[in-house]
């Protein structure tokens, strides 16, 4: 168990113009589950691999438990990693797979067996100990991959999109099991995913990356309610935040209706954003037309068209069931909730309550 | 009609039964024609010399020529001597080739050395020098070191002949091993040797078998060095076969029998391993 | 243990692992035994050959004990360019190699197509078709020389006569064709195996999609299968050429040299221990051949669709 620190960590692939990971500063507390999230190419996997020692650092350093491991080999960093495709040794059975690292470290056989059995029990893998990976289902393989990491009692767990290859239902189920497991084991965990829902539900804190740069690292709640910039605001939350361009001065209008709030951005205003739950369909002042209604049972997402600043814009409203309305209907909407204001540099400058 | 059916299924949708049967018959015809020379030789080997010369079958089939050819006469290379020589030379050289090529392929595929492309090209370029060109320097030195007529010189040369091919093929099989597996082994603290043994070899096994088989084929069938570097009485199977080419009379049946015997081990090995060969080749020799 | 990381590594290539902490020398270590062996056993004779090529080393007494030598500089090389027999041998080599490689690729592909589908006795036919490749080249040459081509005992002549044609003295009248026949007969199975691997590695869903899109079987073959097979054809051509260009056994057995069938290796052999015993000039010929081959191979490898390229896949 140890804290992890990235200090100005940079990785620039030879021959590419921009770094894959750009001066990353990140501190992960002991026992924390931190999620690295971002679209593909954001550098999240690279950052994880740098922590693993599978990628070198061009600049900066990485510390585990206060020790600089920037030039230490992967095997000496006391870490364990779960790969996206599990990377199970195909010719070894489950028990041998889990015990492999211990064997390489020279752990005596009886202790090895004991630890393997203990971990197998934790993950409900006991009936499968003598099966080869090809005879396991995807979910079972995933658990073996986890078991292989857990059995080593490392200082840090690294997970590279471990749930991506599971089907949707299994993914949701395994997600919660994983979080419970991590809390129980209380080992520092760095978790990479491209799925923001996974990030939000699992992480103690979430670090959002884009093009190699850290956008924001905060608790899920803070990310949701206080996004640092346009990118985070649009990336976190599903459906995405509604965003509309606004003139830099003058009264704030949405869909032709004045909002009636003033901002103190001194003319640097560029975009406003509001979440779907802030859109109320009823007798509001702004006219809108329904494009499509997505009915999820307990709630509905209504996709609307409004006339904003002379152009037709799409926004989404989140409505509780029941809702009556279908494509083509004309409705009236109002805004009630948090409105975020962003400047031309895409930074969030102010949020007001409506 | 060249339309592919799914593996194992007999009839794709829309395929005519007639076309399938026609293709099957075509395959049989082609196969029979192609193997005809071998089949004919096999038949000849069981004939008497009379029948062989005249292409008749008046005297029936006999094992006589096989026993003729197996008996040794003083001064000529005996079957048992030639066979033993060949066996030793082929096995030893192939084993050593694999021992040299496996780590080399690792150094070109899994943890590549800088400039691995140049190294690979260097190994391939070794096959550009016609072996007939280097025979004289080799002969001179072999004579100096008393290696003429020994198995050692052949072993050394066969290793040199097969090493480029082995490295090339093994490398292309190794790059098929999923990178994550190697990384996981890295993190688990596996040494190079253990990585080879526990992770890479099991996955690349068919490819390794295919490579070894090719080395065996080329070594067993090698003729030039065997002839040039050995006295008539101390050589390998190819020389033994040639020894049965008689200038005096026509001993076609005897020669046929000798040919069959000489080729049989490798042919049987090739038959047994053909599925593995194809699987190995399709796995990754082509990259 | 602090080891300097190698930041120049790009582990995104398939099969290659970062491990940036292994120094280049550590990575070279597994390569050394093979490299050392290859250099010792092949480069030393090569260097010695270069030395001989600059002398007039020969052995008039045919006792395999060469006479004392005299350094002649590049005289041997000059002689090469005015040697019509060498040019003839080069031309024969080119013809032999091109015909043998192209024909065996052609037949190999056809056979692979035939064998790619399931039919009764598929395994047996494939086994039979592979066999010629497994035979000793000298045996293959003997079989064709005596059992097929020979005018006395050969079966082909009997068949021709039976069909009403006059006899053909295959080997004496058509030496090059005879040798090419044997080479093609032996190497077609090898090409067939490679092409089979190629056909079987085609993902079937692409073919199915094409079928659904309305493509005819020939259309699918021409536009999807052939491009996919291209790198297999290239590999077959490369490997086949490397071996076929050195063809020796068949020539020695069937024609013993002679104007129509002497390729470069056989020519060099005849210059040196095959009768000429002019080791100096033979070495010069050999060196010229090597330089030639390296040039051709470098060009060919540049052109070929990245046989040595790493597979870029993150």
- DSSP summary, beta strand count of chain A: 21
Architecture of chain C, CATH level 2?
Orthogonal Bundle
Largest sheet of chain C: none
Assembly status: heterotrimer
Q: Class of the largest domain in chain A in CATH? A: Alpha Beta
Poorly predicted ranges of chain A: none
Helix content of chain C: 55-70%
Shape descriptor of chain A reads elongated
- List low-confidence stretches of chain C: 1-5, 7-16, 310-314
How confident overall, as mean pLDDT of chain C?
81
The chain pair forming the largest interface, with residue counts per chain, is: B-C, 115 and 119 residues
User: What is the H-and-E element order of chain A?
Assistant: EEEHEEEHHHEHEHEEHHEEEEEEEEEEE
Rg of chain A is: 24 Å
Order of helices and strands of chain C: HHHHHHHHHHHHHH
Biggest sheet details of chain A: 6 strands, mixed
Nutshell version of this structure?
Chain A is built from 8 helices and 21 strands. By secondary structure, chain A is α+β, with helices and mostly antiparallel strands. The longest helix of chain A is centred in the middle third of the chain and has 18 residues, at 168-185.
Description:
The complex is a heterotrimer of chains A (354), B (287) and C (314). Chain A has eight helices and 21 strands. Chain A has 354 residues and is of the alpha+beta class. Chain A folds into two domains: 227 residues, Rossmann fold (3-Layer(aba) Sandwich), CATH 3.40.50.300; 113 residues, no CATH class. By secondary structure, chain B is mainly alpha-helical. Chain B has a single domain, classed as MetI-like (MetI-like fold), CATH 1.10.3720. The longest helix of chain B is centred in the C-terminal third of the chain and has 34 residues. Chain B starts with 16 loop residues before the first helix and ends with a helix. The relative contact order of chain B is 0.13. The N terminus of chain B is likely disordered. Chain C is mainly alpha-helical and 314 residues long. Chain C has one domain: MetI-like (MetI-like fold, Orthogonal Bundle), CATH 1.10.3720.10. The longest helix of chain C is centred in the first third of the chain and has 32 residues. The radius of gyration of chain C is 25 Å and the shape is globular. Chains in contact: A-B, A-C, B-C. The interface between B and C is large, with 115 and 119 residues.
